[in-house]
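Exercise 7b. Backbone tokens:
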């Protein structure tokens, strides 16, 4: 398919394929529907109709292919080959494309050899200007008498002393061999309309939506140095701190892997133990671990910690709960936090700290001081939003402005009811203070407050928590 000949914007062609095997082709406003067994059959049917149009025009045509992931831009040639075209917005889906520059090459009167003869079809064909497929043959140039060519002198034979040998050359190295490898083949689309076309033999790159999902996974999986601490903070109950802590751990565990711990550092009685899967062999908590550290012989190993943390199975991370609801132990103070943090950091690469609601508590302040990234949580309600804004002021007053600017704000919807004005105000305010604001949709599977089941989340919810996790990972240096 030529990349040098401009493709006119007429006819305007759009195709739609659905998962149930139905589809349609619209050419300059006239629609024709198709029906097949499945989505793949629908794609083949609409493609065949578009190829007919391309054959009638004797050139490639622009196509806007619509599906659940948006609109993809394609160029379909008379021989049935498909390439990626310009962005969908330039195909007339939202605005007409710029006019093609004028063709200065003299027109060819002979029709293109590859064009199929026009046939009668129910798809209308708009008259178009003939597009040259080959440059006209240049007229022969008259012979001009000239002097006989003289052969250049032969180079002098090299002497034995100056002859080129392997000893004189730079020897190839292992780096040369590694760099001689072929460039990896680009990753093709697997989702949506583009992924569907690829299943029947095309090679289309991912669309914007799919590429964004891949970029988030790559950000979560990227390497960072040392051991990292993420503190999830708020000054009000019910703003999603525990949910955020758990789903950060689950997403990191499933996408990144490695040693990840979610630690309920509530100064009194937290709820992370309630929202997580229980340990089959024990119900020990952070208070029990603190006692063991005080009374133990020395540094605990990862094997020792198994008796205090709770594995989360397919989520591939561990939970350290705060004291049980029937416990009456003293609260964990600043010194206790430091001792536990040092102990846990020896065994875990990433620690996610779920805090309490009291920003004046020593353990809350210690978590903020130890954090590499802060995660500020709120729900889309006026009282929670004002409390969040006040907490941001508190962080600045205590000298944490730099951490606030590197922080991520998680804005959760507590019900299906939306408050767009409040959400806009909150996004604008926290967007000025923190590095990124991520909105999380309401998910009925989280509404009960029971053990969090990652597999029960909606697709939209899982993708939102992927975005949250990628935003947090981007701040880990």
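Sequence design result:
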């Amino acid at each position: 398919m030529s990349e040098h000949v401009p493709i006119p914007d007429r006819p305007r062609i759009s195709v739609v394929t659905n998962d149930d095997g139905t589809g349609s082709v619209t050419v300059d406003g006239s629609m024709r529907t198709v029906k097949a067994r499945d989505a793949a059959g629908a794609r083949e049917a609409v493609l065949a109709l578009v190829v007919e149009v391309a054959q009638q025009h004797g050139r490639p045509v622009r196509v806007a292919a619509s599906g659940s992931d948006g609109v993809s831009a394609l160029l379909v040639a008379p021989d049935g080959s498909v390439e990626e075209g310009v962005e969908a917005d330039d195909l007339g889906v939202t605005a007409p494309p710029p006019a093609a520059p004028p063709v200065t090459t003299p027109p060819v009167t002979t029709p293109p050899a590859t064009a199929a003869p026009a046939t009668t079809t129910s798809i209308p064909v708009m008259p178009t200007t003939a597009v040259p497929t080959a440059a006209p043959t240049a007229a022969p140039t008259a012979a001009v008498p000239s002097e006989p060519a003289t052969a250049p002198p032969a180079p002098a034979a090299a002497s034995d002393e100056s002859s080129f040998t392997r000893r004189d050359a730079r020897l190839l190295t292992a780096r040369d061999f590694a760099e001689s490898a072929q460039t990896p083949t680009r990753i093709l689309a697997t989702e949506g309309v583009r992924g569907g076309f690829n299943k029947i033999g095309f090679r289309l790159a991912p669309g914007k939506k799919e590429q964004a999902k891949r970029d988030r996974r790559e950000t979560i999986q990227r390497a960072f140095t040392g051991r990292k601490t993420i503190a999830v903070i708020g000054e009000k109950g019910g703003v999603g701190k525990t949910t955020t802590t758990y789903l950060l751990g689950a997403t990191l565990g499933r996408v990144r892997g490695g040693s990840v711990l979610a630690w309920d550092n509530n100064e009194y009685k937290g709820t992370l133990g309630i929202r997580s899967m229980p340990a089959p062999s024990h119900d020990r908590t952070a208070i029990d671990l603190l006692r063991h550290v005080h009374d133990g012989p020395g540094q605990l190993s990862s094997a020792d910690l198994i008796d205090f943390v709770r594995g989360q199975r397919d989520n591939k991370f561990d939970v350290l709960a705060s004291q049980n609801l029937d416990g009456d132990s003293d609260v964990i103070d600043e010194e206790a936090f430091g001792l536990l943090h040092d102990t846990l950091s020896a065994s875990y690469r990433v620690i996610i700290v779920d805090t309490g609601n009291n920003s004046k508590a020593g353990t809350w302040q210690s978590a903020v001081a130890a954090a590499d990234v802060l995660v500020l949580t709120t729900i889309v309600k006026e009282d929670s939003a004002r409390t969040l804004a006040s907490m941001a002021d508190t962080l600045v007053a205590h000298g944490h402005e730099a951490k606030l600017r590197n922080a991520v704000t998680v804005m959760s919807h507590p019900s299906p009811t939306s408050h767009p004005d409040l959400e806009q105000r909150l996004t604008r305010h926290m967007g000025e203070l923190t590095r990124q604001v991520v909105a999380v949709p309401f998910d009925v599977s989280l509404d009960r407050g029971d053990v969090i089941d990652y597999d029960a989340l909606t697709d939209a919810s899982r993708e939102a928590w992927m975005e949250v996790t990628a935003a947090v990972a981007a701040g880990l240096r």
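Instructor comment: The first helix runs from residue 39 to 57. The CA atoms of residues 108 and 136 lie 7 Å apart.
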